[in-house]
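Section 3.1 - Work completed
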Amino acid sequence: MSKIILASKSKVRKDILDSNNIDCEVIPSNVDEDSIKISLINENASPEIISKNLAELKANKISSKFRDHLVLGADSVIDLQGNIISKPGDRKKALNILKELNNKSHYLISSVCISKNGKMIWNYTDKAKLTMKNFSLKELEIYLSKISDETLYAYNVYQIEGIGKTLFSTIEGDKDTIMGLPIKKIKEYLINYN
């Protein structure tokens, strides 16, 4: 398979690519996700469209600088009853997010996009449904106290491959989608691309 550029500083996404023997170089896109999200929400864009557009913007930005390279952009959003939940900026916001998700089902939507020469040539969006158990405020605070800052800000408020799995009564969907990179579809595309 071709070497690709990953337009993300996500360690988890890089680890998924590495464990699937996909050679990649990391060049973060550093797009202003929050302002783009706000703009798309104001246009009544669906959570799927928001996730796809952010993945595409990230890939296209790096792809326009590195001609003839395949660039992979990715984005994940939490959709709680039609409302987008963004990554927390601090621990207080993280606790508020957990309180919002508590005892409810939500969707985690992950989009990936491959661009070449500044244009998207392939994309895929998948979603998983997660139902959180009912926790007391004290239990949520104890959970948060066990999570490092790096983990908290990188993985939204739960780290599904670690302690975060204990938050949920049911998880329906692809584990790689929940971790932010539906790798099976990416591999299918890259194999057929060569």
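Second construct:
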Amino acid sequence: MLNLQELGCHNVNLVSPTHVVPNILAAVKLAARQGLRIPLVYNTGGYDSLETIKLLEGVVDIWAEE
């Protein structure tokens, strides 16, 4: 994520990432401490559980469904 930011990307777009949500949470926490400033987009197919959505509350900046 930090490398993407350094390359000039406008956001980090996670596509169908439900199976790695615990890893995402850990990585975002670490990256934020190291200066991650670009938005986090969670691109879901609409199949995520309410539990997953609640875990990501306050972490994801933009929700997308395709």
